């Protein structure tokens, strides 16, 4: 189970976009996530008539390492760390380390 998942609200804690907040749009692999509006780069693309894609300069989000983002706690209005609680029936549940509140519950 990963500490940061798709749909989580995160804040960037290191890098050129430090302090910005966004939502995780996809998890690339175990160590990288793509966040909406974060780590945007400009790419020069060629037109591709087969895909009906125009050429030019496009802006897209690139993956960012999970160590550079922290989950956003809406209660404390700060970045927070994530812990796991193991229930008696064997389920794992994520929780905020600062106040112990369950994530997504």
> What is the number of strand segments?
10
* Cα-based radius of gyration, to the nearest Å: 17 Å
What spatial order of strands do you see in the largest sheet?
Answer: 6-3-2-1-7-8
Average pLDDT over all residues: 93
Strand content: 35-45%
Gross morphology is: elongated
The low-confidence runs, each spanning 5 or more residues with pLDDT under 50, are none
Distance between the termini: 16 Å
Helix content: under 10%
Instruction: Quote the CATH topology of the domain at 9-79.
Output: SH3 type barrels
Structure classification: mainly beta
Taking the sheet with the most strands, its summary is:
6 strands, antiparallel
What's the helix-strand series? EEEEEEEEEE
CATH classification class of the domain at 9-79: Mainly Beta
Our count of helices gives 0
Please state the second-level CATH architecture of the domain at 9-79: Roll
Keywords, please?
105 residues; mainly beta; SH3 type barrels; 10 strands; 0% helix; elongated
